Fold this sequence. Notes:
alpha+beta, 2 helices, Alpha-Beta Plaits, 4-stranded antiparallel beta sheet
Amino acid sequence: MAVTANYETVMIISMKKGEEGIQQLVEKFKSLIEEHATLKNVDEWGKRKLAYLINKESEGYYVLFDFESTAEFPAELDRKFRITEGVVRSMIIKKEDE
């Protein structure tokens, strides 16, 4: 049995993608996580103002994913975030055992 840990990731999607494009990206990453990990929760925070301009944008669409996976998957997920057009920022955090 592989050793797993709890993670959470927040991604910010560009508002330039439009409502349909944003939902497509949310579904893409939701299914990617479900494929390689155990998805516990998806929390869509929605449109929020950014703390500072990123690529000349002042707003982004925030999504939080809670999942449990092996140690290898978060690195692959981070790589996918970086190469996906429309993902402005992302962060993956390993949660402490509760």
